[in-house]
Amino acid sequence: MSSLLLIVMYAALCGANTDSQQENIETLMDNVLVLRVPYGQGSMVYVPLTCGEAYQNQPVTWKKNGMELNPPLQGNQIKVLVEEMNGGNYTCHLSPNGEYLNHTVILVQLDPDNRTVILEEKSPEEGHIHCSASNYKGAFDCTWTITQSRSNAAVLLVKAERHLEKIPCELNADGSGVHCDYASCPYGEEQQRISLTVYIHSYSRLESYTKVFYLREIVRPEKLSHLRISEGKVFSWSYPDTWETPVTYYGLQFQVKLVNHGHSCNSDEHIMQHSITDDTKYEVTVKAKKYVFCVRAQDRHTRGPWSHWSQCT
């Protein structure tokens, strides 16, 4: 009786363990499975693979990363043992000529995914992804930087959405960012944030990075255009060509700064004059003959990011 009870308990534990393992396996996209494993614990998980319904009664053999498996695995449906972060590309072939039939990539992600190593953190406030837009029409760009130790990493998938509405994005040619185009109404008030998630892998290690934001938080006006001087001391400029109109509704405010000749507009030292104004002209009152005139813009209402400096020496 006790032996029977032990057998039943063992079978229940094995079944529960199998169910738990299945909960940690997710299909991310076609032909890509993600196995989530806990950090710091040596994991060994059997992952079920299927070559395809069309090959149910065919003599199917399997390879991992192009290499024969030892011992060999055969059959349309198999289970492969994934130890720790050792995933890979499993391909199934028709015996005996080895014709390629299908493949499944197994990637491994730490759970929780808070020990990332692939992307550089730009700052604690900004995180790993920087996003910006030049106006409120809906188009925005996001960029990231891969760490030198993971230079082989590649972007697998980018998802962007707002309130379950998908936003189309196009990956840059070098994989360092995306351009997304969300058809929004520039006059409407934002109710939901945009969510952008980047899935990137280095060998079999998968990491995901998510940035959530309102468009108004990332709108940065482009550099001011047509900066000019008249009468030797009055500077004037125009709104950026890409900025929203009418400017009476989408007003900008301007930061003006004069720094000593030979110094950068980004310098916090050697400032000769400083002011914030809503006007697109400014009269200099310093007596110095040589200086650098700097001006940049910011959305007057949202107080979002400042534009890059425009300057005149």
From TrEMBL:
InterPro entries: FN3_dom, FN3_sf, Ig-like_dom, Ig-like_dom_sf, Ig-like_fold, IL-12, IL-12_beta, IL-12_beta_cen-dom
Domain Ig-like: 41-102
One Gene Ontology MF term: cytokine receptor activity
Source organism, top-level taxon: Eukaryota
Single GO cellular component term: extracellular space
Oxidoreductase found in the keyword field: no
Main location class: secreted
Fibronectin type-III domain location: 220-313
Subcellular location: Secreted
Complex formation: Heterodimer with IL12A; disulfide-linked. The heterodimer is known as interleukin IL-12.
Protein name (Swiss-Prot/TrEMBL): Interleukin-12 subunit beta
Species in which this protein is naturally found: Seriola lalandi dorsalis
Highest classification ranks of the organism: Eukaryota, Metazoa, Chordata, Craniata, Vertebrata
